[in-house]
Amino acid sequence: MTNKPHSHAQWSSRIAFMLAAVGSSVGLGNIWKFPYMTGESGGGAFVLVYLVCILLIGLPILMSEWLLGRLGQKNPISTMSRIAGRLKRSQAWVLIGVGGILAAWLILSFYSVIGGWALAYVRYGASATFTGLDGDSVGTLFSDLLASPGTLLAWHSLFMVLTIAIVAGGVAGGLERASKILMPALVVLLAVLVGYAATTGSFGEGFDYLFRPDFTRLTGDVILAAMGHAFFTLSLGMGIMMAYGSYLSDDVNIGRTAMTVVILDTIIALAAGMAIFPIVFADGLDPAAGPGLIFQTLPLAFGNMSGGVLFGTLFFVLLVFAAWTSAISLLEPIVEWLEEKTPLSRLQSALVAGAATWILGIATVLSFNDWSAFTPFGMTMFDLLDYVTSKIMLPLTGLATIVFVGWFMGRDEVRAQLNMGSTAFAWWRFSARFIAPIGVAIVFVWGLMH
């Protein structure tokens, strides 16, 4: 492959960049995974540990990825090659970029299928499919969706087309425009749903469940689960934030912007919990229902409540928006690399990357039905892709990133890039060199053992 002349795009403003970064962070992890993990882990104690881990692990790595991207001004692979070369470090550090882009491709292949589920449930909600369903019927609705490869493939295809369409527009015409529309819409939808949850009569119970810590539930597994989710919710280790950082101008304060993104990401995750748990408690449902909380438990509530058609539809539109903003960011580092390293245009790069992702996603579609008996290493293809990326690739890429910035880059250059005061920088550097690497290493080992 040969490099072609390439004028690197820039975000038009700090706000545009921040909306895109928050859009990447706010995904199914906030609306789907965070509430059910909180439910399984006893509520407020999990939330408290999660917030501490976000600050000590997530924030230093997020800032490191942006810093590298802005310094390199290229796709993640070329960025690491350029910086390692300038610092006279081994070119083996390029594997950070390679691992990030590969992980983004693998994750998007099955993330798109789950995004397709959300699209399907928008249709179910709008057509009053949930109305009057009992627990068994709701379970059957979900299992029937998974059992139909044709239906799953159609929704997966639609979701990928929507994602490609945005990324093909470039930074200003695609990523920025989508973020400026989807993120405010997502916040409005979430506010409406929280407002509705306040009318259920169980809002106080939901609030206590989320914010009143029960430290008797705080086991080692709960602490490690919170640590792991703090890492993954910010889209770390996937090349995304490095790619987004490459479009970042020098006048943006990385530290202040990263803190804002972390705060907004956390507020949205907590708001999602406040939208979900009052409904769960009002209907006598199980808050620890696990992954089925969104697709099997909540439809039961929506189907038997006043205004359920409207609010059920709004909820799954919210879920689609969250999935869509993250999917856009997952496709971006792959497209950026293709656009810079091949003769392909932006549109062609988006089509090639999207098609490759869509094809791989067929393996996930079939893993729920026709290929369900195909279980390499004792896992379906969906479970295998999820395991390899979340348990191995992301922790290793994130660990390598923070070690490179914390130990192999010059202290003065890093401080100048982060533009932090001496006390704040001392905290950041200590966390980047010791706390974050140790935390990620623990998450990695624990993930392999479970």
UniProtKB/TrEMBL annotation:
Compartment(s) where it occurs, according to its Swiss-Prot or TrEMBL record: Membrane
Primary site of residence: membrane
Keyword Membrane included in the entry's annotation: yes
GO cellular component: membrane
Membrane-traversing stretches: 12-32, 44-71, 92-114, 153-175, 182-203, 223-245, 257-281, 301-328, 349-368, 388-409, 430-449
InterPro entries per the UniProt record, alphabetical: Na/ntran_symport, SNS_sf, YocR/YhdH-like
Membrane-related topology note: Multi-pass membrane protein
Molecular-function GO terms, alphabetical: symporter activity
Alphabetical UniProt keywords: Membrane, Symport, Transmembrane, Transmembrane helix, Transport
Superkingdom of this protein's organism: Bacteria
Family: Belongs to the sodium:neurotransmitter symporter (SNF) (TC 2.A.22) family.
Protein name per its UniProtKB record: Transporter
Organism: Kushneria indalinina DSM 14324
